Amino acid sequence: MALVVFACAYFLYGRWLVRTWGIDPAAKTPAVAFEDGQDFSPASRFTVFSHQFSSITGAGPVTGPIIAAMFGWAPALLWILVGGVFFGAVQDFAALYASVKNKGKSMGMLIETYVGKTGRRMFLLFCWLFTLLVIAAFADIIANTFNGFLKDGTQNVPGAQAATISMLYIFVAMGFGVYISKCKPSGVRKFLIAVVLVIAMFAVGMQYPLFFDAQAWRYVVFAYCFIASILPMWLLMEPRDYLSAFLLLGMVAGGVVGVVVAAPTINMPAFVGFTVDGKSLFPILFITIACGAVSGFHSLVSSGTSSKAIASESDMLPVGYGAMLVECMLGVVALVIACAAASNGALPAGTPFQIFAGSISSFFQMFGLPAGVSACVITMCVSALGMTTIDSVARIGRMSFQELFSPSEGERVSGMQALAMNKYVSTILTLVFSYLLCLAGYMNIWPLFGAANQLLSALVLISLAVFLRTTGRKGWMLYVPMTFMFIVTMSALVLSVYGIAGKLSAGTFVFMIDGIQLILAVALMILAILVVKHCGRELFGKSEQPNLQA
């Protein structure tokens, strides 16, 4: 059913959006017009799709639906279908569309164009703070995935093997990027070489696992983030995402085929209740299932990196709208797997990734893949979900920090501004603050990350509505999503602040964990309200900006 819904959404609703907003396949895109070998680098449709899909498909589409299954499979499935089609995919496509139509500008710079300077700075500060949360959370997830030792001291072979393969991915991707740049291979040749490289990396990685503890891998991950943030897109991120896409798409395809062939019995009720274990369906469901339905982070990828690689406007629909629907399909697979693994209406013990990995691994074994190889493949897929996200976020965080201090048109650059805009300085500051947050641990960061992520979606949607209105395009299809997401996420943040305040009164408050979360939560809420105020004035009041065309 989900496949039919998503296919219809793409060919009907997606194409309707294209006709409504208008694209020009013959237009010169920012990637072509401003190609600089660094951030602007035109690429093939599948290469950009690979980058978009690999970057946005993090831990969310797996963890979110599995956790949300505690309310029953029906609410979770409905939100993935409705949210994915009418909220998430529309947001991702609209952000990509707006950026491509505006010289590849990021969301922050778009807000300056259509809302004003103050709105831009507040939004960019919000984005930068948000990227700190993402980097911190995913760095901790990746480090623990690569951890070569279990809690009892025994070796974690699949994790160590995945670590080796991931390190190989970095260096092989750079060589692959140089080859593509210099030799300009055909699509078929590039595909065949990529398949051979992936198989070779798995063969070497499984033979030579790297056994280091989680802390060592945290250092490695942050070093990788620094490199990925400053190197040209064509040299590392684009080829790495291209290679990773085969792995991730294979995982999605394997999951879909496995579910169809195995036809597992759903052991969870359709609906458990509006309150489960003290958690309310509203707003918890809608912030728990984030990347699987709608995620503000996706818009940063669409406008921050993907828009600078689009070679033709006709590529925007499959990259922006299509990639999100594929991710939604992964969310559906994760939900089915979790509910099938349930017993007596209760989810099995273990983390969402453990539940997901165990079931997908059994599917692969059903197709004849040995258990050891299957475990390595799934662990590598999990790490790829994180690695392909964290490198994009590090780059976006660096760019957000630079844009936060960049002067508006006609303004002079001061010495401090020039220092803050330096890509090395901005990258280091972004990663240092992210590392400090990472010390709090993934589980302490994730709740705040989820709420901030969805709040970012609300801010992006209202900003895009302003863009559409100002340029004379229809934007009414964004009004319900932006209003709903703002109400949901502000409610979640208020509950988060209330919970932290409860710890303070109970004497269990820890500043380095709860204090930092409290400061960030309050700061994000204030910034969000101010951004909405400025955007709302442009959207529903008399615009202070001149009528613009894009």
Structure description:
- The chain has helices spanning 2-21, 30-33, 45-56, 60-68, 73-100, 107-114, 117-146, 157-183, 187-207, 214-230, 237-262, 281-288, 296-304, 316-341, 352-366, 371-405, 415-421, 423-438, 442-470, 479-506, 511-540; strands at 275-276, 279-280.
- It has 550 residues and is mainly alpha-helical.
- A two-stranded antiparallel sheet has the order 1-2.
- The model has no long low-confidence stretch (mean pLDDT 89).
Q: What attributes does this structure have?
A:
21 helices; single chain; Amino acid/polyamine transporter I; two-stranded antiparallel sheet; globular; mainly alpha
Question: Summary?
Answer:
With 550 residues, the protein is mainly alpha-helical. It is built from 21 helices and two strands. The protein has one domain (2-263, 277-540): Amino acid/polyamine transporter I.
- The third-level CATH topology is Amino acid/polyamine transporter I
> Separation of termini?
38 Å
From the spread of the alpha carbons, the general shape counts as globular
Main sheet properties: 2 strands, antiparallel
> Rg, please?
22 Å
For the record, the CATH architecture stands as Up-down Bundle
Q: Unreliable stretches, pLDDT < 50, 5 or more residues?
A: none
Annotation field: number of helices: 21
Order of helices and strands: HHHHHHHHHHHEEHHHHHHHHHH
Give the strand order, joined by hyphens, for the main sheet: 1-2
Beta-strand segment tally: 2
Which CATH top level class fits? Mainly Alpha
What is the average of the pLDDT values? 89
How many structural domains in the coordinates? 1
Helix content: over 70%
The chain-level structural class is mainly alpha
